[in-house]
Amino acid sequence: MLKQGLLVLGLCTFLSGGVLAAGWLVTTTRERVTTESARFVEVFAAADAAGVGRMLDERVIFSSGGESLRGRGREWAMGVAAGMRGQISDVAVKPLGAVEDGPDAARTRIWVRAAVADAGIVPSTWELSWRRTGGRDAAWKIVKIDCLRLYGEPVRGESSAWVRWADER
User: Fold this and answer.
1) Full-prediction pTM beyond 0.85?
2) pLDDT-flagged residues of the chain (< 50)
3) By CB atoms within 10 Å of each CB, which of 36, 74, 77, 162 scores lowest?
4) Pick from 92, 100, 91, 93: which is nearest to 31 by CA?
5) CA-based diameter of the chain, in Å?
6) Which residues, listed in sequence order, are joined to residue 113 by a DSSP beta bridge?
7) For residue 95, what pLDDT is reported?
8) How far apart are CA 154 and CA 125, in angstroms?
9) Rounded CA gap, 66 and 91, in Å?
10) Cα radius of gyration rounded to whole Å, the chain
């Protein structure tokens, strides 16, 4: 009986190790887009326009408080990123949540704190919508970026200060 008990214990220990290893090796969609969201902020803060362009879908939509910003897309974002060269001295990203909207669609909400040369410490909240096309091994691309809050206050539309500021870059 003791031998059977030890055999069962050994088998359970082996299976538990397999489950733990699988957990370490498998990255969920939510983990992936959360990590990629933080990476996008870092790439943008580094003024890497080409890197920003690689992470954005060709038809990316920008919005402010849910209101679409007409005429602002991938090329605009790359230009804003290039204009940030030397402007951001420090950046921190805190994930606020992620949700899967389907097998190839997900959204993340992040809080960003950036030290910007001509604006001081800027806390903001953003929602990034992600899409994957081309199968399970395809890259995730940002299809929509929505600025939700700036300095703790909700933002709205094209008249938002952040939109005017970005347009000046």
Assistant:
1) no
2) 12, 18-25
3) 162
4) 100
5) 78
6) 92, 123
7) 96
8) 9
9) 24
10) 21
* Sequence-distant (≥ 6) Cβ neighbours of residue 97 within 8 angstroms: 108, 109
Cα–Cα distance measured from residue 3 to residue 123, given in angstroms and rounded to the nearest whole number: 61
What is the rounded distance in angstroms from the CA atom of residue 142 to the CA atom of residue 53? 10
Answer yes or no: CATH 3.30.230.10 is held by domain 25-167: no
CA distance 19 to 33: 23
Whole-number pLDDT of residue 27: 76
Give, for 125, the enclosing helix (H) or strand (E): strand 120-132
Cα–Cα dist 136/117, whole Å = 40
H or E element that contains 10: helix 2-25
Closest CA to 150 of 137, 141, 163, 139: 163
Contacts of 166 (CB under 8 A, 6+ apart): 76, 80
pLDDT at position 137 = 81
